[in-house]
Amino acid sequence: MASNVNPTVRRRRLGQELRKLREQKNMTAEEVAERLLVSQSKISRLENGRRSISQRDVRDLCGVYEVEDQRVVDSLMEMARDSRQQGWWHTFGDIPYSVYIGLETDAESLRVYEPQIVTGLLQTPAYAEALVRGALPETSAAEIEKRVGVRMRRQERITTEKEPLRLWIVLDEAALHRVVGGKRVMREQLEHLLKLSELPHVTVQVMPFEVGAHPGLNGQYAILEFADAADSSVVYLEGVTSDLYLEKAQDVQKYAVMYEHLRAQSLSVEASRQLIDETAQRYTE
């Protein structure tokens, strides 16, 4: 796969373009589905970029939307072809959250609120392994190794010198005290967290217990933003059996405002580093 081709992003952009064409014709997804003798859910999935789209699908949809400009059709067909290529994560086999990985791989910035654990992009291999083993007790050793491998590969967006991911983490203090993998693993993890927090594109703040109730009590979430203006921001909510992606402007805005409150109520960057360091020192054998 060409390095500049991200199939997840291509599917998302293609879906947005197809939705625009449908809306320009003042047609509902149900009406399009009836014309093509397919389910309405298929049209919805094609438009939200959650499933692969074939060039035949594009051709049929362009026919329904009466697209006369062949350059537009050719462009959409090319996007469909690119969307069926494989990203780096496909070499690891079936990954439950592959859609998110595709978005994260192409994102310019990422804001995360994490209430329970150190976020995946900042985890050490030992911490990640202990976390997966504890959270998914019936997972095989091979599957654990694969999940940890994917997590370490994702972290290259943080350590790369060329256009690294801008990362802002608000970490609940609980994550510093939840002993994952034992005291040695925790000390190593918190020291690693401190080291990464010194990178110019990584910001870590801790939400202290003393704050009490705050806007993040509903759980973990992430806001992904992209350099290309054609790609709207996405709020990602992780679930046990399925994930949720919010792309409507009003939804993204609500979570963005909530994140500003979280940042304002958290410790400063320096105070956060001091607390992380003090907590790490307490993890002695």
From TrEMBL:
Entry's transmembrane regions: none
Record-annotated HTH cro/C1-type domain positions: 18-72
Pfam families: DUF5753 (PF19054), HTH_31 (PF13560)
An example molecular function term from Gene Ontology annotations: DNA binding
Protein name in the entry: Transcriptional regulator with XRE-family HTH domain
Organism: Streptomyces murinus
